[in-house]
Amino acid sequence: MEELLDGLHIHRIRCLPTRYGSLNGVFTFPAFFNPNWLWRINQILRRARFDLIIVRDLPMAPAAVAMGRLNRVPVVLDMAESYPELIRLVWKYEPFKVANLFARNPYIVDAIENVVLKSVIHVFAMVEESRDRLIAKGVPRSKITIVSNTPVPGRFENANPISAERSPNSAGRLVLIYVGFVNYSRGLQNALLSLGEFGKKNSNFQLMILGKGNAEAHLKRMVVELGLKEHVDFLGWIDNREIAGFIASADVCIVPHPPSGHWDNTIPNKLFDYMAVGKPVLVSDVRPMKRIVEDLRCGLVYEDGNAASFVSQLTRLGDEAYRRELGQNGRAAIAAKYNWTEDSSRMLTALRKLVRT
Description:
The protein has a six-stranded parallel sheet, with helices on both faces. A four-stranded parallel sheet has the order 3-4-5-6, sandwiched between helices. A two-stranded antiparallel ribbon has the order 1-2. The chain folds into two domains: 2-14 and 30-150 and 341-356, Rossmann fold (3-Layer(aba) Sandwich), CATH 3.40.50; 164-336, Glycogen Phosphorylase B (Rossmann fold), CATH 3.40.50.2000. Helix 2 runs parallel beside helix 3. The chain starts with a strand and ends with a helix. It has helices at 23-28, 35-45, 61-71, 83-93, 100-103, 106-119, 128-136, 188-198, 216-225, 243-248, 269-276, 287-296, 307-316, 320-336, 340-356; strands at residues 2-5, 8-11, 53-56, 75-79, 122-125, 144-146, 174-179, 205-210, 232-236, 252-255, 281-284, 299-302. The radius of gyration is 22 Å and the shape is globular. The chain has 15 helices and twelve strands.
């Protein structure tokens, strides 16, 4: 299956007929050595001359490396996150599944990553912390380029707040927003516990949670138990085109991810999206977020798991003038540095050098 889209030639793998149900997931799953993907990648590489293969994240990297060697095409790894640490995060926070012993075994993934890093000619890392982790594993600094997940300029400019009817409990309140997966590993449990403490001093707030995930039912029970039912709205999946409007309607944007080997080596795109709309952020002390937020003075950082720290920082953000100052700092940083024009330029410069060599 192939198609042209905005000048890109897209090749897809075929799916099984719908009557096969869940087997289709196994057939198309981007596992380390899924024969279906190996065959398709090889088929495409044999059709024309390619200068490079760019593979996104570790699950597909072994297949790309194997087919690249077979067809003498070098491979670049686009590393959005430390996949072994992501798997450890899954084991820590997500419900246990027997399949994880094979498909998501951190020891197996560690070994695969080590092999892949020796096999690719370059790596795109998300943040400085990820780069430093790779250097510690023996990857030469010259083989690493930082390409982050920053927003396209203009996407969030002139974002109009949503109507009051879409968030009926927020009128006149300090409005917080969270955008993203509602999973156990995202730290929303601690955020709710901290808001429960905050509510004992100031009940004039509202949290909008945009997204869905496997912790949603648990978090809704927590909201009831903490007496926050009138203060938290679970809005589910929102059309991506409307996200900017919801962010524009908030006073404070939160990223409560718990410090871990995973979050300490990547950066959530929601942080940059919040900044692009000109909103102050309240983030946990995950290393990349802490560094960026404190350097840019675009928000405040609290100690994860410390409700008093969260409450203290959120209280400081009750000052509208202070919020405006922090938000303006964030927006200026997006315009000057943290945008896709800058990151794509670094990526293209690195790719041109690789092709020339």
